[in-house]
Amino acid sequence: MVCENVRLGEGRMEEKTKRREGDEQKVGLESEEEFLDQYQKDLEVMAIERVEDLEVYRSAFCSSMEIFRQSKERPKVERCALADQIRRFSRAVCANLSEVWRKRRYPKHFVNKLSDAGAEASETRTWLRFARSCEYLGLEAFETLDDRYDRICGGLVQMMDAPEKWCGPTDSAQEPSVPYDTE
C-alpha cells in the first residue's frame, strides 16, 4: 500500500526525479528498469533531513492510517475500547519517532525513545491479535499489518543497535558564543 499522506520532504522527490532524468540522458541507461533500479539506490542513500524521511516512520504512519480505516468498520460496542486502544498505540509509534528524531543529539535519549517506540509497536501488534481473534479484522489485513509492525520493530532495533549512525557528535550541540547582558 502506498500512503499518499506521507511525503518525502516537500519537493525532494521531484528534485531527485529531475536529477535522475538528466543523469539518464548523460549516462545513457538502456532501459527504464535500469533507470528505476538506479533511482531506488539513490533514494536509499539520500540524506535523512526530517523524521518523515525515515522508512520506519513512513511505514508506521501508513500502517496507523490503515488501522484507522479498518477500525471505523468495527461494531459500535468496540469503537470505544479496542478501536481506541489500537489507534492510540499505532499513532504513538509515529509520535515517539518524532521525539526520537529531535533527541538524536543525545544517544542515550535517542535509544530510550526508540525503545518507547518499539514498545508501542509491540502493543499495537497485541491489539491487532485481539482484533483478529474477535473477528474484527480479516486474516489478510491482520497478516499485512502484523508483518508491517514486525518490520517496524526490526527497524527500530537496528537503529538502537547502531545509534552512532543516527546521532551526531555530542560536541556538535554547543551553544554559540553570545554575550549575555546580565544587567
Structure, described:
Helix content is 66%, strand content 0%. It starts with 11 loop residues before the first helix and ends in a 22-residue tail after the last helix. The protein contains seven helices and no strands. Residues 7-29 and 170-178 have low confidence and may be disordered. The longest helix has 27 residues, at 107-133. The chain has a domain at 51-165: 23S rRNA-intervening sequence (de novo design (two linked rop proteins), Up-down Bundle). The protein is mainly alpha-helical and 183 residues long.
Order of helices and strands: HHHHHHH
Largest sheet: none
CATH class of the domain at 51-165 reads: Mainly Alpha
What is the mean pLDDT? 75
Q: How large is the count of helical segments? A: 7
What is the second-level CATH architecture of the domain at 51-165?
Answer: Up-down Bundle
Distance between the termini: 60 Å
What is the molecular shape? globular
* Structural classification: mainly alpha
Percent helix, as a range, is 55-70%
Q: What is the assembly state of the chains in this entry?
A: single chain
| Rounded Rg | 20 Å
Strand content range:
under 5%
Question: Quick one: how many beta strands?
Answer: 0
The CATH homologous superfamily of the domain at 51-165 is called 23S rRNA-intervening sequence
